[in-house]
Known about the structure:
Layout: H1 63-81, H2 85-92, H3 94-105, E1 110-111, H4 117-122, H5 135-139, H6 141-154, E2 158-160, H7 168-172, H8 178-202, H9 204-207, E3 213-218, H10 221-225, H11 241-257, E4 262-268, H12 271-283, E5 290-294, H13 308-316, E6 321-327, H14 334-344, E7 349-352, E8 358-360, E9 365-367, H15 374-379, H16 381-387, E10 389-392, H17 400-415
Parallel strand pairs: 1-10, 2-3, 3-4, 4-5, 5-6, 6-7, 7-10
Antiparallel strand pairs: 8-9
Helix pairs in contact: 1-2, 1-3, 6-8, 6-17, 8-11, 11-12, 12-13, 13-14
This protein binds zinc ion.
Protein name: homocysteine S-methyltransferase
Binding site for Zn(2+): 328, 395-396
Keywords: Amino-acid biosynthesis, Metal-binding, Methionine biosynthesis, Methyltransferase, Transferase, Zinc
Amino acid sequence: MKGIGINPFSVVSAAEPNTRKAPFFPPFPRLLPPNPSHPLSPPINPPRANPNPNPSSEKRPTYSTALTSQAWAAAGEMVGKSGGGVAEEGGAAAAAAAVRRWVEAGGGRLVMDGGLATELEANGADLNDPLWSAKCLLSSPHLIRKVHLDYLEAGANIIITASYQATIQGFESKGFSKEQSEDLLAKSVEIAREAREVFLKEHSDRAMQHPILVAASIGSYGAYLADGSEYSGDYGEAGTLEFLKDFHKRRLEVLAGAGPDLIAFETIPNKLEAQAYVELLDECNISIPAWFSFNSKDGVHIVSGDSLIECATIANGCSKVGAVGINCTPPRFIHGLILSIRKVTDKPILIYPNSGERYDAEKKEWVESTGVSDGDFVSYVNEWCKDGAVLIGGCCRTTPNTIKAISRSLNQRHSAPRSPVA
Length: 422
Ligand SMILES: [Zn+2]
């Protein structure tokens, strides 16, 4: 649940400098040529953010990089050793094998981050804009970095980029060129990778113990429309497979080329968009594991009314999909939803519910006290683990405190004997 509203909890001006303790933020390369006529345009002329479109040849001296190659090498071996139909089986398991390797390296579970946009708002950002959190790519990248770091400090193994509502079409409608828009997409990944580097420098002890992964967010076409249709899945006449593929294609290519470890297809509201993503992953030859995450309003279907089982089956059929799950859905629905997903896939399951609070679309604000406390949220975690979820975090209106509590709870589970990773 989310909206583009005024956050009653905003206490700090987004323009204020970051006051976080002792972080060193390397100055972010300036990406855009000056466009004084545009109020959001950052200054000056930079080199392109992503000169190397092939992430595998990048030098990324972090543990997660090594693990990325290892995980995919292992997956590749599986494909290479098999032949004929078996090769297809190996291929079908490739991305899931990569995610399992990461999960194993994390001790059997991985902690995901919490809400990014709502936490940016809590840090003073005004996201009342069709770009939502992606507006901060233009106006306050330091806040994005801060929130990524806050989640890493809280124990997250996976941080999700600020590209959920960042699209070439959305930037173009603000007056940016195609190239500038692509740079802004790549910038979302750069910021998350910088945050990871800063974190690993400050916590060299953690670097070799846990994978720290950057997932490039891709929100739905409905999120771009910013008209609530990501919660109805009703795209009217635009709801054709070819239209949706065309809408997402270049965005996917640019984000994948910016060097994330994962592609996060989040808050997928209907079956058609899931199908479009599957076809694009194959046609664009994406070699980075993706996850598919759906949202639900009733604990049975995804928000469009499409069957979760059908949607998870579509995700299961794609070799590039490494994990399947649910996000931005109230915690009380999650148990049943995991059981449905489990019926049709053995891929790792990820869960990052929202706080359960209600969003009042008319007033454009969250209705306080309609959600669960961090403690209540965490009381579900054991159940979700038993149900088979191995990647767990939070979505809108969850905070670094929620993630700290999840991390603590999962670590307690780690110290007790656990059943092997699914
Ligand atoms: Zn959300």
